[in-house]
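Ticket #4471: structure export looks truncated?
Reporter: QA, pipeline team
Priority: medium

Steps to reproduce: submit the single chain below to the structure queue and open the exported record.
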Amino acid sequence: MNNEEFRKYGHELVDWMADYFRDVESYPVLPDVTPGDIIKQIPPKAPAQAESFETIFSDFKEKILPGMTHWESPNFMAYFPANKSKASVLAEMLMSTMGAQCMMWLTSPAAAELEEQMMNWLRDMLGLPSHFTGSIQDTASTSTLCAILTARERATTYDINQRGFSGDEKFTIYCSEQIHSSIDKGAKIAGLGLEQVRKIPTDALYALKADMLRKQIEEDIANAFRPLCVVSAIGTTGTTAVDPIAAISDICEEFRIWHHVDAAYAGTVLVLPEMRWMSEGVERADSFVFNPHKWMFTNFDCTAYFVKDPAALVNTFAISLDILKTDVDNEVKNYRDWGIPLGRRFRALKLWFVIREMGVSGIQEKIRSHIAYGQWLKAEIEAHPDFELLAPVVLNTLNFRFKVDEPDGTLNSLNKQIMDNVNKSGKLFFVQNVLEGRFALRLAFGGTELEKRHVENAWKLIQEEAESVYGRFKKQT
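Actual output as written to the record:
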């Protein structure tokens, strides 16, 4: 492809992208495909000869697009939003065009210094302590692994990095029963083992019980274990519960344990001053992570990882190859040493575009509207005689179920059928949660183009399907 062809096809793709932004709501959220439908349309061998771009793009529209789940649809209410904005997509195009490897200052000075300033912007936007600094990672899972590894190395004066495990360490990690699976994965990768992850019981709000955390730590110390790290949550995966950050910070300081705060999804809400009760005590944590690619309108991937002690982070990951040494190493931040990968994308450009194009006030306005939609739906569910909430509604994630006079086992089956039927319609996509053995319909909404009418329509669809499913059930019984 020559430059003029690139210009022509580039304009065609941008036109298609603009149409997609406009029309994505009309696509079925979930594709109507079964396993194997897509792969059988892809030749088993790579083409020996070049193919025209027209053919390639046509195949994209005819073979790939029909098999895609449309995460950017305002009718996508599963998992957590992975939203984007037009500004972030344009920035991604520029990033891809330049193809910069931003592993250290010299390889792209502007990328390194923009990243440093974007981390400062985010820190101040979220009301985080001024002593926090950090870097942009790919995901919160990677950042949590960084925290666990840094905690491990700090606790052993960086000896495991040098000599490996002796076999006598007996480290333990603590988190709530509701925490993200990345903690389990991090414990495995860091060589600590799943058996050393202590899942602490939660209260009626599904938040970690600080008194039970203290009790478990004391018991482990009495049994010659070495408490290494506590991972608390501002917004758990299932219900967006908020752990008592201040109380956990107290315990971590007392026992000299690394405290990592996982705010992957809900962290964005801290742009609202009225929501900063959630982060009380975070200034005493050792690390903090949140994902702008979840609720700050920046397309995947873009994770902000903050630390109180950057020297501990750098000492954990620093490498010193002659080919990487430069004359300015003592004057700059070489972000290759602030995480796991050597190669790094220019993610800061996306943040710069998004924050400037929307402004802090624009971001705040959207977040407030999403929370308001959650509170509206909460009131609707509470007022309905045949539905009940199964967890507190902290933000814009709701766990509820259709509830009639039937045993819990029957209710679980009915609610799963409601979910399956609605999802198969292509009009809405959401997922389940299980809380104390009860099957919950879990809606999490926060798309960039989300409006109240989309939440109203989701609620209407679920009510209609519940009536239909239960009507068929009664006829059969």
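Status: closed, not a bug. The export was complete when the record was re-opened. Leaving a note from the reviewer for reference: The two ends are 65 Å apart (CA to CA).
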